[in-house]
């Protein structure tokens, strides 16, 4: 059993990794549109890469999903402590 990552500030287990300056090969991208009844228009919910062959990026930056603290160092340390990373499951 692996232990989840824990935000040093609030203890949440979820985080978002933001990659900037990406060079993505063979990507499948989902773009989300959500209808806003009051505004009578679609709100663009952003693009999401759901699959890719390779991702190269200039910089990676991790943010806690809960308190939005910068948890880049903590996530990097967590990922290094995981022995079997990179085998199929939801790797960004
Ligand atoms: Zn947090």
Compose a concise summary of this entry.
The chain has 92 residues and is mostly beta strands. Helix content is 11%, strand content 41%.
Bound molecules: zinc ion
The quaternary state of the protein chains shown equals single chain
Radius of gyration: 16 Å
Mean pLDDT over all positions: 90
Distance between the termini: 21 Å
> Tally of extended strands?
6
Biggest sheet: strands side by side, in what order? 1-6
Question: How would you sum up the global shape?
Answer: extended
Task: Report the β-strand fraction as a percent range.
Answer: 35-45%
* Total domain units: 1
Spans of at least 5 consecutive residues whose pLDDT stays below 50 are: none
Order of helices and strands: EEEEEEH
Strand count, sense and closure of the main sheet? 2 strands, antiparallel
Q: What level of helicity do the residues show? A: 10-25%
The number of helical runs is: 1
Structural class: mainly beta
Overview of the molecule:
The mean pLDDT is 90. This protein has a two-stranded antiparallel sheet with strand order 1-6. With 92 residues, it is mainly beta. It has one helix at residues 72-81; strands spanning 15-20, 23-25, 28-36, 41-51, 54-56, 59-64. It has one domain (17-81). It is built from one helix and six strands. Strand 3 (28-36) and strand 4 form a beta hairpin. The radius of gyration is 16 Å and the shape is extended. Bound molecules: zinc ion. Zinc ion is lined by residues 7, 9-10, 12, 64, 66-67, 69. The site of zinc ion has 8 residues, from loops.
